[in-house]
Amino acid sequence: MTVHYGGVINIITLIYFFFTTILAIWLVYRQGLGHNYPWVWLTILSLCRLVQVSIDLAATAMYPPETVADSSLQTGVAILTEIGLTPLFMSTASLLNATKRPKGRRMQWILILLHVPLVVSLILIVAGGIDPHSREGPTFAATDTTKAGVSLYCACFVILVWATIVIASRVYLATPAEAKILTTVVLSLPFFLVNVVYMMCFAFESLWGSQRFNVISGSVTLQLCMQVIMEYIIVGLYLALGFELPDKASRFAQRAVALSEMDPDQVTELFIWKLYEIFSGRHYSNKLHPTDMNKPLLRLR
């Protein structure tokens, strides 16, 4: 059986995300609870892509391009292609949330609340599917509900870029690990932008009558360059970052060494600081750090 151009890309994608699934699961274990959210979302993205390309391969094998495609299978492919942006967004937001000192309390809540429109967009895209009036032809157009979901993606991306700029402007407060996180997120944003633009072009391509950006019947090369390769790069960057960050054993060892070097009074002050930081809504001076025992611990703005 001859494998067409799109089928070759699907097979490569299947192999790629099979290995990223294994690596992401390993990073979930390696980073430990409270630090593994970015890689939990990468695992979900990888599983989503594995299901998507498997369905697409089955659909193209049973219904070659010269025949009328099966609408149910192709609807599933279109939905899975679009909703893959949700775990990618959430993984990026989780990485930004891992930068504690440059981030600040207010930005932390903004990044957490960003999950709300992302979940809404996911629901809209799944509910919207493909326009039923276009299923018998080659168009497979997006519904108004799907357009609303993709538009929410665009709005979330703008918020994500703004949050990255704000946090990156405070990079002088970051630890080396946090600086690596910010560098990785900044490097991923151009590729992320291309992916979002492709999804927007698919959702609103009916405005100019083109079918080149259609995730089902459009240009395979355009999808490869604007969506598939972009995800390859972003996922690769995030996985590489995960292996560069300290694992849970290293973090525990660093804390044990830091505590062993403190005298009892410093340990007590640090404990009181942490309690006050948890239960207080105030912001502290950017120059103050709880482990810097040579400075007053409770100096407020």
Automatic annotation (TrEMBL):
Record keywords, A-Z: Membrane, Transmembrane, Transmembrane helix
Short name of one Pfam family: DUF7702
Residue stretches spanning the membrane: 6-28, 75-97, 109-130, 150-173, 185-208, 220-241
Sequence ranges assigned to domain DUF7702 in this UniProt record: 4-245
Keyword Transmembrane helix tagged: yes
Top-level taxon in the UniProt lineage: Eukaryota
PANTHER family for the chain: INTEGRAL MEMBRANE PROTEIN (PTHR42109:SF2), UNPLACED GENOMIC SCAFFOLD UM_SCAF_CONTIG_1.265, WHOLE GENOME SHOTGUN SEQUENCE (PTHR42109)
Protein name: DUF7702 domain-containing protein
Annotated source species: Westerdykella ornata
